[in-house]
Write a structure and sequence with these properties.
With 499 residues, the protein is α/β, with parallel strands linked by helices. It folds into 3 domains: 114 residues, Rossmann fold, CATH 3.40.50; 135 residues, Serine Threonine Protein Phosphatase 5, Tetratricopeptide repeat (Alpha Horseshoe); 182 residues, DNA Cyclobutane Dipyrimidine Photolyase, subunit A, domain 3. 47% of the residues lie in helices and 7% in strands. The strands form 3 sheets. A 5-stranded parallel beta sheet has the order 4-2-1-5-6, with helices on both faces. The N and C termini lie far apart (63 Å).
Amino acid sequence: MTDVVLLPYDRLSLDHGAMASAQPGVTEILFIESGQMLRSRTWHAQRLFLLLSAAAHVEQDLRDKGFTVHLVTADSMRAGVAAFRREHPDARIRCTEPSSAASQRALLECGVELVPDDTFLTSRDEFRAWAGNRRPLIMETFYRWQRTRLGVLMENGAPIGGTWNLDKENRLPPPKGEHPWPTPLHHEPDEIDQRVWQSILDREFPFIGSAPNGTWATTRNGALRQLDHFLDTSLVDFGPYEDAMPRDSWSVNHSLLSPYLNLGLLTAREVVDAVVERFERGGVPLASAEGFIRQVIGWREYINGVYWLFEDDYRNSNVLHADRPLLPLLSDPSRTQMACASSVVGDVLERGWAHHIPRLMILSNLALIAGVRPRDFLDWMKAMFIDAADWVMVPNVIGMGLHADGGAMMTKPYAAGGAYVKRMGRFCSGCTYDPSKRAGESACPLTTLYWDFLDRNRQTLKGNHRMAQQFVGLDRLADLDDVRTRAREVLDGLSGGTI
């Protein structure tokens, strides 16, 4: 029987999962290029390129190590496995647990053996045991359990510094005037990168957004360079500015490591260990080290756990009955006069990325309060972001961003008006709209739609005790009729691409 490891494009670790026991001369490697995956949607150019080029680099690494590598092109993953089995009927095919429920079903139906994905620090079974009958699933509770279980930033059973969460220190807006933000690392394309991009062009794969421009590495060595760059230039001020939205930096002090973690080019353990080591060396504030580690061992692992805990039909949740089609500005930022939305969408088209606050408080918030269909917005996010994966986007969009699950994951909607964007960003100066106004032609669409969202969804949300203050504020509005009129204008304008 031939031992074969199937390597999907986003399961590229050579030391973990199904590859942990692989040996040249004993184990053979299978890559399947699925036409269904590559052509099922219009991907961001850099997302498509990263998947294909990272896999091509790993393929070459494996050949250099002496592995026999098989490449199969097929209409789908199922068809690829079936085609390979016809040529190799004695093959035992193993694969690291995939990143989506659909892929997992397909592989199991094909008789592929699944090996736990140990690039995460929390297995699916461990998260399920922690979740038990807890509802709602409070991320802060999970994070404290993680810190204790893993012994990260702990001393004598207590958190270093005496507190678990330093979030209050990590909410500074961008400084006024110029600020020396870290310069993002540039990744020069190599021969494999050039060959892969030319192949994408030659085969006319559908894509949107800017061509690869050196923003993202396509190798493990490049991912390690990015980790070192973050530690050297950005970690020290990561905490204070992790929520800030300046206009003169798209990356701020963020690590830009999520694509490499999600592909398996880096692991959570090595990233956390590197940050802890740098903190213990001195010179990095606890607020920055803790804030970053919370994103990795807290939020990232929590989201993965939630995804595999909930049923797959969770992605179809739409408790708020949102039915508006995708907004035109999401594919063309010139279709809006909103400076914040135009700027963030422009960044996404340029690089396939924006950090967590623009994703949540501008893109998702706008989709939420405008009533965009959750599945439409989910599909857009999955296609456009360089670090997208089904397990990442389904909980983040359905649960957190659009509250389409009615609170199964988060205790209240993340709805906000223009005041938040003005406080944490630098978009409002010179914008056509005034974030302090909710009615009239110059009213900020976010501010108008925030109050209209509460008005439209009063019956559904009024029982949520965390929304009580907002509804008290809504009831005090003397100009609610004017807000409703302005909201209709805004929604019509957003749908037509003129607001």
